Amino acid sequence: MTTTLPRRRFVMGLGLATGAAAAPLRATQPAVLPAIPETCAPLTGLTFTAPEQQQMLGVVDEIVDRARALARMRFANELPPAELFDPRLPGWQREPDGALAEPAPPLPSLSSLPSTADEIAFSPAWQLAAWLRTGKLKSRTLTDIYLDRIAAHADRLQCIATLLPDAARREADACDRDLARGRLRGSLHGLPYGLKDLIDTAGVETAWGAEPYRGRVPAADATIVRRLREEGAILLAKTSLGAIAYGDIWYGGRTRNPWNVAEGSSGSSAGSAAAVAAGLCAFAIGTETMGSIVSPAARCGAVGLRPTFGRVPRTGAMALCWSLDKVGVLARDPLDAAMSLAVLHGPDGADPCAIAEPLGLVPRISPQDIRIGYRPEWFTAGTEADRAALSAAREAGFDLREIEMPDVDLAGLGGIVVLEAAAAFQELTASGRDDLLTWQDDIAWPNSWRSAQFETAVNYIQAQRLRRRLMIEFAQTMAGVDMILHPNDAGGLLAIGNHCGYPALCMPVGMLEQPTRQGFTSYVPPADLPRGAVLKPVPFSITLTGRLFDEPRLIAAGRRLAEAIGLPSLRPLL
């Protein structure tokens, strides 16, 4: 017969209390302390003699008391730890911007206003902005187009957490009046956008996609919300996200891929990617800790920009992993991402990880001057779309160079996100409110955070030292190139780029026939297709990982590559 200890009182059976109401250890479990050294040894592989174990018990008393005291404390989510991450290694210097130019002029095919609402809705944000500035399009008209499309498609996609139609129409009317008086608020004047619902909006519910936070209404706007408003952008809706920034399952259901609504849109910026891909807004804001922009952008066929760590302040955004969280953009064109980043970037005096590095204009590039690193085996093992992107880069004249990748076991870094997230949301684990979350699979947050109680502080510090080694080796890889072209998760670059803080641009490069995919599966090769599987055309993407704080060059190269590929405007048939 086995006895199950209440999880709210004891952490993983070791007797380390997590709840405020936990009883003193000696009063309830007098036999636990002597067993702790023997219990912990298998977790580390270390063994101790009987005298050493006896000596350890005196210190374990203090550790238990400290663990209990810390578990009883309640910290605001936005309070960061004292240890702060900086992607810049000693001696780092910015790359020169090169010859700069204003963003490219309007494409000939888009220079005049389309005749249908759908064509307008799917136009890139930079072109919409030009039509708004010149009076060819009214902000109220554009806002109503998107609201009509949201009414028609959002319920099916489950991509909108909170819709703000009245406020959006009022703001659109104000933008039109301002423009009629000759006042242009900024580069995003009159553009309706979607905002991932983990970024605070004053007086508007911001529930982080999670049942325990339903009804959470912030008193103040996040820094980026204020910046977007001042630049003329119109908040249309709060977009859905996987609960507490993981996956695409949230309290409203599962956000769907507009190209195949039978599958999820991936996450966690699930609603932002789906809304942009479905033509429900001009652009959207997302966040990434470990793939939360790149993954849904790839699944839905949107352009995703993950900026350099520290480029955009996170004040007012839910903290998941302080040393990895980044705010970025989901859009339909690389230039859309450039426009948004120009508004979002720069320290705000509140986020201690925000870095004061200048952001130049998108440069005018010659492909032969851009050194792009790659590994041939990534593309041999990749999809047809991956190989087509590599061929397009070569034909466009980019200077392609084979690179050597860091020799670091990335599995050793796997605990960083979980441990920081477990600390950020310890209250849910200790109180049992993690049971309120819909997603309770083995890989979901509740089980990950409970299991994190087994991890040692020594492990976390050693993982951060391994991370530093990775940063040094990856800096050597990047020293000979301007960026790396790769299938989204090839070579461990999704994890490497995030752990080292480098920017990435993910963009669609082709369409492939696929069955309905489950979970985070990105590609099912022909040999693995189930017999009789129903196939649907879905977008596939490629990623460019760039140098630190070199987003303008990354965007310029991405746009030139997109032109070389010649992929037409993507419009899912909803």
Low-pLDDT residue spans: 1-31, 98-102
CATH class of one domain: Alpha Beta
User: Could you tell me the number of beta strands?
Assistant: 15
Mind telling me the C-alpha Rg?
25 Å
Write down the overall mean pLDDT.
90
Polypeptide structure, described:
Helix 14 (415-424) crosses helix 16 (445-451). This protein is 36% helix and 13% strand. It has a domain at 119-346 and 358-408 and 463-565: Alpha-Beta Complex (Amidase signature (AS) enzymes), CATH 3.90.1300.10. The termini are far apart. The strands form three sheets. An eleven-stranded mixed sheet has the order 1-3-2-8-10-9-14-15-13-11-12, with helices on both faces. It is α/β, with parallel strands linked by helices and 574 residues long. It has helices spanning 25-28, 32-44, 50-72, 117-121, 125-133, 139-157, 165-180, 223-230, 270-277, 294-300, 334-344, 376-380, 384-395, 415-424, 426-431, 445-451, 457-478, 493-500, 551-565, and strands at residues 160-163, 192-196, 234-239, 249-250, 253-254, 256-257, 260-264, 283-288, 303-306, 326-331, 371-374, 399-402, 483-486, 504-514, 536-546. It has 19 helices and 15 strands.
Provide a concise account of the structure shown.
With 574 residues, the protein is of the alpha/beta class. 36% of the residues lie in helices and 13% in strands.
Write the SSE topology:
Blueprint: H1 25-28, H2 32-44, H3 50-72, H4 117-121, H5 125-133, H6 139-157, E1 160-163, H7 165-180, E2 192-196, H8 223-230, E3 234-239, E4 249-250, E5 253-254, E6 256-257, E7 260-264, H9 270-277, E8 283-288, H10 294-300, E9 303-306, E10 326-331, H11 334-344, E11 371-374, H12 376-380, H13 384-395, E12 399-402, H14 415-424, H15 426-431, H16 445-451, H17 457-478, E13 483-486, H18 493-500, E14 504-514, E15 536-546, H19 551-565
